[in-house]
Write a structure and sequence with these properties.
- The protein contains four helices and no strands.
- It has about 70 residues and is mostly helical.
- It has a domain of about 25 residues.
- The protein is flat.
- It starts with a helix and ends with a helix.
C-alpha cells in the first residue's frame, strides 16, 4: 500500500470506530445447534393456493409475464 492508502485507512478508523468490546459475550454454537434442531417452517395452504393460481395464470396468459415481473 502506498502512503495515501495508509492515510485514508487511518482517517476511516478515526471517523468510524468499531464497537468498544470486540469479544463475544457468549458462545454462539448452542444457539446455532438449537436453531438447526427446530422443525422446518410450515407454509400455509393459502400461500400454496396463491402460488398455484399465479402459475396457472402465467401458463394460460403468458403475455402477463412482463407485468408480473415488473410488479416484483
Amino acid at each position: 500500500m502506498n502512503e495515501q492508502d495508509e492515510a485514508l485507512k487511518e482517517m476511516l478508523r478515526r471517523s468510524a470506530p468499531g464497537p468498544p468490546d470486540r469479544e463475544l459475550q457468549r458462545d454462539l454454537w448452542p444457539a446455532i445447534r438449537q436453531r438447526l434442531e427446530r422443525p422446518p417452517v410450515q407454509i400455509p395452504w393459502g400461500d400454496w393456493a396463491i402460488a398455484a393460481t399465479l402459475l396457472l395464470c402465467l401458463l394460460l396468459f403468458p403475455e402477463t409475464i412482463p407485468a408480473v415481473l415488473y410488479l416484483l
